[in-house]
UniProtKB/TrEMBL annotation:
It comes from the Bacteria. InterPro entries: DUF3829 (IPR024291). This is DUF3829 domain-containing protein. It holds the Pfam family DUF3829.
Length: 347
C-alpha cells in the first residue's frame, strides 16, 4: 500500500507532559506553595499537553470508542465526537502549555503578595488563559462525545472563568499602580481568594485530563491497530513509540520510584520496545523520503526530529538509572515535550 506522507500524522491525543514542582508549602505560599520556585523536587505527570489530531491515510477513522453515537460527519469529515475531542485537546494544550494555567499560577504565587509592600513593584498576568478558555468553550458547544467529558469540561470552564475574571481585574489594579494608593490593601485582601481560585482551576484541569486521557487511550488502541493493518509503518511506529515513552514516564508516581529496582527494570523493558520502534521508524522514514518524487510527497522532517527527541529521552532514562536523581526525570519530560512539539508541527 502506498502511503501519502504529505498528509498530517494522526497521533491521537498523545500526552505531552507538563513538569510540576512540588516544593515548599510555607505559610506565605498558601495553597499554591507547590508552585514556589525554591527546589525542583519531582515531576508530577498529571497535567498533560496533548498531541493535535489529524488524518493519515484514513487512519483517523479507526472508530469512536466513546459512549457517544457517531453522528453526521463535520465539514472536515470527522464525526462529531472526534471534532469535540479535537477542540477540547487544542484548548487543553493552550491551558497547560506556555503561559498557561500552571505557569500563570506559579508566577502569581512568586509575587508573594502578603509579604509585599506598597513601595515594591508588583505585576501579575493572565497569560494565555483567555485563549484556552475560548477554545474549551468551543469544544463544549460541539455535539457528540461522552457526557462525563462535557461534565468535566463544565467544571473546568467554570473554574477558569473565575480565574480569568479575577486575575484580569487584579492585573489592572497592579499595572495602574493603584496598590500604591491603598497601601496594597485590595491586593492582600483578595490574595487568598485568588490563590483558592487558581487551586480550584488546577484541580478541575486534572479531573478533565483524567477523562480526556481515557478517551485518548481508547481511540489510540483502535487507531494504532488500523495503522498496522494499513501498513503505515512510519505513523504506526512513531505513534507507538510516543505512547510507550508516555508509559515510561508514568512509571514514576512518587520521588522514591526513581531508585526502585523493580520500576527501573520495567522501564528498561519499555526502553527496549521504544528503541525497536524507533529503529523501524527511522527505516520507514528513510524509505519514504527516498521514494518521494517531489518535496510535497516527502515525509515531514518532524518525524526525524521526534525520533531524535525520543532517543534523547531514552538517554535521560539511562542517566536516571545511574544517578537516581529525579532531575533526570524532569529531563525525560522535557525531551518528551520536545517530541510532541515536533509532531504537532506536522500539518
Amino acid at each position: 500500500m502506498q502511503t501519502d506522507h504529505s498528509k498530517p500524522l494522526s497521533l491521537q491525543e498523545i500526552v505531552h507532559k507538563r513538569p510540576f514542582r512540588s516544593d515548599d508549602l510555607s505559610p506565605e505560599a498558601g495553597e499554591l506553595g507547590v508552585f514556589q520556585d525554591k527546589v525542583r523536587l519531582f515531576v508530577l505527570a498529571a497535567p498533560a499537553l496533548l498531541l493535535a489530531l489529524g488524518g493519515c491515510d484514513g487512519a483517523g477513522t479507526g472508530g469512536n470508542t466513546s459512549s457517544a453515537i457517531p453522528g453526521v460527519p463535520t465539514a472536515e469529515g470527522k464525526d462529531p465526537a472526534q471534532a469535540k475531542l479535537d477542540a477540547y485537546t487544542e484548548g487543553y494544550n493552550k491551558l497547560i502549555g506556555t503561559f498557561g494555567l500552571p505557569e500563570t499560577a506559579e508566577n502569581y504565587a512568586k509575587e508573594d503578595i502578603p509579604n509585599q509592600s506598597p513601595t515594591d513593584n508588583v505585576s501579575i498576568s493572565s497569560g494565555w488563559l483567555e485563549a484556552a478558555l475560548t477554545k474549551l468553550k468551543e469544544g463544549r458547544a460541539l455535539p457528540g462525545g461522552p457526557a462525563d467529558l462535557d461534565k468535566a469540561g463544565d467544571g473546568l470552564i467554570a473554574a477558569l472563568d473565575k480565574v480569568v475574571t479575577h486575575v484580569k481585574a487584579l492585573s489592572v489594579y497592579y499595572d495602574s499602580k493603584a496598590y500604591r494608593e491603598d497601601k496594597l490593601a485590595r491586593g492582600k485582601q483578595e490574595d487568598a481568594a485568588m490563590r483558592a481560585e487558581f487551586q480550584a482551576a488546577l484541580a478541575a484541569a486534572e479531573s478533565f485530563d483524567t477523562i480526556l486521557k481515557r478517551e485518548r487511550d481508547a481511540r489510540a488502541a483502535v487507531e494504532i491497530e488500523q495503522l498496522r493493518k494499513d501498513g503505515n509503518i512510519l505513523a504506526y511506529s512513531t505513534k507507538l513509540a510516543v505512547q510507550r515513552s508516555e508509559s515510561l514516564i508514568d512509571l514514576f508516581a512518587k520521588p522514591e520510584d526513581v531508585k526502585n529496582p523493580q520500576i527501573l527494570a520495567r522501564g528498561t523493558a519499555l526502553v527496549g520496545e521504544i528503541e525497536k520502534l524507533l529503529t523501524d521508524q527511522r527505516a520507514a522514514y528513510a524509505a519514504a523520503k527516498a521514494a518521494a518524487k517531489t518535496p510535497l510527497e516527502a515525509p515531514s522532517s518532524s518525524y526525524e526530529s521526534a525520533a531524535g527527541d525520543l532517543t534523547d529521552l531514552v538517554g535521560k532514562f539511562r542517566d536516571l538509572k545511574q544517578s537516581g536523581d529525579v532531575e533526570n526525570l524532569n529531563d525525560m519530560v522535557e525531551e518528551y515535550n520536545d517530541a510532541i512539539e515536533s509532531l504537532n508541527n506536522i500539518r
